[in-house]
Specification:
The chain is mainly α. It is 32% helix and 3% strand. Helix 2 crosses helix 3 and helix 2 packs antiparallel against helix 5. It starts with 11 loop residues before the first helix and ends with a strand.
Length: 149
């Protein structure tokens, strides 16, 4: 018959003590988690400038209209508060979701309402014929003025 060595083994009562007694795990170290990735930049957009420069363009060009526009009906990924119940904070938060940091000119907020011939992307309504349009320029300026942090 062969003898088994109990050296290096913890009897069942010992395991129970490790699980129940406070401080029994002291000296044991759990693996540490790696630090989360960092070093990226974030951009902060001005709410006041949005209300002063961008919201009026969206309203003037009918983007917040009901029906199949962004103020009702089929909104896609960009929803705006309807004309009859304006909520600039809601519209601001929705507009930010349509902004691409780099390059800013590729933001959906700028490319979708821009004519295809001027570099726009597919969208059923094209309120900006060219990038020289004053409404387009107002939105572009707001996007580019985002403060990098």
């Amino acid at each position: 018959m062969r003898k088994h060595s109990s050296r290096g083994r913890i009897p069942a009562a010992g395991w129970l003590a490790l699980l129940v007694l406070p401080g029994a795990w002291e000296g044991c170290s759990a693996p540490t988690q790696p630090a989360p990735p960092s070093g990226g930049q974030s951009v902060v957009y001005s709410y006041d400038e949005f209300v002063a420069r961008v919201e009026p363009v969206l309203t003037q060009r009918g983007c917040d209209a009901t029906g199949d526009c962004h103020g009702g009906g089929i909104r896609g990924t960009f929803a705006l508060s309807p004309e009859a119940a304006k909520d600039p904070h809601y519209d601001f938060n929705q507009a930010i979701l349509q902004v691409t940091f780099s390059p800013a000119s590729h933001s959906a907020l700028l490319t979708q309402p821009l004519a295809d011939s001027a570099g726009g992307t597919p969208h059923p309504y094209k309120p900006f014929a060219t990038t020289a349009d004053t409404g387009y320029q107002a939105i572009l300026q707001w996007v580019q003025d985002g403060v990098k942090q």
